[in-house]
């Protein structure tokens, strides 16, 4: 951690302390950004105004896509141990159970469920991960002001950096008695008179604002936060209750006879979280509400009427508050290419669908690899423009989705109440048999064409489901090794594709060879399709040629684009930002290897690197579609290993070849598995497709070179 020296409030005596990246706000979004940047050799300072993690949890669910992201970052195991699987919603009309709906089930991901985990535990888990990387949170410090400083150099160029003033209460904490206690408020809180602080100025290359809906950074920069504040009078209650309704069975949705709705979540400590709809208030009435006007007795009466005639009694409470629903989005997520808003600082919406924390975590995943590439000198600063270009439309879609879910959940007019009853009745019977693109699990978020999502100019386009900007999908692959020659093609050790795509900041090049590398089927197989080499207009290759291309290009890329050490990053920051820099960092925990943070569940999977050491990996995927479905004496597998010998012995990530049984993974990427020309797919460090080109011959590799050169420096 970068250490600093407290100073007085006098601006003339404030010392300047440098850090490559300052992060304001140590909630899940800020913590994850700090973890990812630290793994990418970028020193950070993470400040948080609260002295302790709040025991109150707004978010309760980690969705499938976020679990994939955590897995790629190498931190998923801790959270799987802390949380519990969640998929079913129990839907009631009054006290009667209407249906159990598998609302969070999905066939699209290895993590085919929601992970029920309180935000306080998510925050704790991320904090522990950051500690193991040698970084501590600077608690008690809050941001007072920030600005971008631009200085003219002697050669006429301009140098810019961020100057941020932070403070810490001399006595007590930074929480002021004048602050709003209504959850969801976005207004800036007034100052408290006679409160004394120590002040410090921090200069940084970049500032990431993850300081919530009331974001001080957003307010100080006067970034507009347009949107609306809903007049829904929502109440949140955490406590123990006694009821005839089994609220501890899982997520429960109550459509009350009093035309009110209530959702409940069982908490690990035996308490139940309730989100209760209490109708509408005028804006004036809503603004006048004070938390102390809400009592446990008032909530009990309202909740009891919703589940009537069932019994409902509150035994105690640990949290009781009004929830003000704001649907807002910052006018810009990026200020002068130096200050970035993420999480609730950039977008807020209703809690419906559990999208808020998950969206913030994915903001960090999108931003940090781009920031790291720029700071390592591997990409131009213009790469950072794609953060807003990609995440702003996503936030807009999330706001609309949560608004729709909230409106549907609270709707109690006769027509929509009837439609909800019908939908609840049939959903359990049809959902298991349809593969719908459920937006709630966040697996189908797509980034559209831009500077880093480019369509191949020389090859035909494909269906949008497989195009650039789509999430890289997962699938099982067979490990090909010489000792497996006695096994059939579908047997032996398997590895998931996502287990190969590990570590932040790495471009994964997927080389789909169709069945180009496999032995041709015998004549009695009856194949009439032309061999791959005769496919018109597309260069193909054999195993020898492909092995040569992979080795040459991987070597060239790694030679041209490589990560600096943490010390080099600190030194480069010092040359940009004037003032003293403290480059000292705590070492990696001695219980961990300097090369790997954890062992993979499969011996064939790639261990997660603690620190970024390479920016490119190549994985070769061969289809066995042309092989007989039931080889009698494993001759085909023997022949397969022989034909891929040059790649089978490669290390994982170095072009090693894997067998795609029946071309299933090929299909997921829109690649022809039988007698096809092959395809090269470039997967960005955040596991979205950036480029794809038909074929695997020299011309295809040349196009990949051109793509990388167009986005990297």
From TrEMBL:
Pfam families: FAD_binding_3
Presence of keyword Flavoprotein: yes
Assigned keywords, A-Z: FAD, Flavoprotein, Oxidoreductase
Entry's Gene Ontology molecular function annotations: FAD binding; oxidoreductase activity, acting on paired donors, with incorporation or reduction of molecular oxygen, NAD(P)H as one donor, and incorporation of one atom of oxygen
Residues of the FAD-binding domain: 19-144, 197-400
Cofactor(s) it depends on: FAD
Protein known as: FAD-binding domain-containing protein
